[in-house]
UniProtKB/TrEMBL annotation:
Quaternary context: Homodimer.
Lineage of the species this protein comes from: Bacteria, Pseudomonadati, Pseudomonadota, Alphaproteobacteria, Rhodospirillales
Named cofactor requirement(s): NH4(+); K(+)
GO terms for MF: ATP binding; metal ion binding; pantothenate kinase activity
Pathway of action: Cofactor biosynthesis; coenzyme A biosynthesis; CoA from (R)-pantothenate: step 1/5
A Pfam family it matches: Pan_kinase
Catalytic activity: (R)-pantothenate + ATP = (R)-4'-phosphopantothenate + ADP + H(+)
Protein name in the entry: Type III pantothenate kinase
Length: 257
């Protein structure tokens, strides 16, 4: 079985695959100080609830955008699961896609993994929107290569910044308000955050399509993908398994059969 690890700025996601079948998926808050032993205690307990044991794991792959967490995740794979993990972005790891940008080494591992999965699943060219700590818009060309994109502040990050800067504004739930014109502070904030973000999505997608010069499908992933897909016609597909599926594909490509 394969242990796939996606370490983002907010959460680390662990998934176990038996072939193409996902046997379990779990999340924990990203903490660079968490040791490999701490991960193991937490993870083995959750695995046991699914009838899984550490000896079932025969391979591992890691995509991480948090260098401080990568070391302990590698130790987890080596010391506790007895396997050398494939690390997305390291020399020698074949993605099957190129990063056609000024500095390929600076592209986040998650964006590369999403590119691989999106190109294998949907007709290219594509725009992949990932609603994470940051909201990224990634362009996948007709050949399945990553060729740039946009990084915008994530929705929760924007909301936190607003609350920190304006002491009288309350914390609000992210949800579409019934009307754009708010009649109270909470409704005004919800409208600005939600519909303002819809405007950002639609505006950036339109500009990317115009600059690229060809029709492009739009795929969204991340926790808020479904919420925004209901509010705008530009998001054609939602796919919350995109990153993990990309890790599965990359591991297969880099494993001697």
């Amino acid at each position: 079985m394969l242990l796939a690890i996606d370490a983002g700025n907010t959460n680390v996601v662990f998934a176990i695959y038996d072939g193409d079948r996902q046997r379990g998926i779990w999340r924990t808050a990203t903490d660079p100080k968490r040791t490999s032993d701490e991960y193991m205690v937490w993870l083995t307990h959750l695995m046991a609830l699914k009838g899984l044991k550490p000896v079932d794991i025969h391979g591992a792959i890691i995509a991480s955008v948090v260098p401080g967490a990568t070391f302990n995740l590698k130790r987890l794979c080596k010391d506790h699961f007895g396997c050398e993990p494939v690390i997305v972005g390291q020399p020698g790891v074949d993605l099957g896609a190129k990063a056609l940008v000024d500095r390929p080494e600076e592209v986040g591992a998650d964006r590369l993994v999403n590119t691989v999965a999106a190109a294998a699943t949907y007709k290219t060219p594509l725009i992949v929107i990932d609603f994470g700590t940051a909201t990224t818009f990634d362009v996948v060309d007709a050949d399945g290569n990553y060729c740039g994109g946009v990084i915008a502040p994530g929705l929760n990050l924007s909301l936190e910044a607003l609350q920190m800067a304006a002491s009288k504004l309350p914390r609000v739930e992210i949800q579409p308000p019934a009307e754009v014109i708010g009649k109270n502070t909470i409704a005004c904030m919800q409208s600005g955050i939600f519909w303002g973000y819809v405007g950002l999505i639609e505006g950036l997608v339109a500009r990317i399509r115009a600059e690229y010069g060809e029709p492009m499908r739009v795929v969204a992933t991340g926790g808020l993908a479904v919420l925004f897909a209901k509010a705008t016609h530009v998001i054609e597909h939602t796919d919350n398994e995109l990153t993990l599926r990309g890790l599965l594909l990359i591991h297969k490509r880099n494993t001697v059969q």
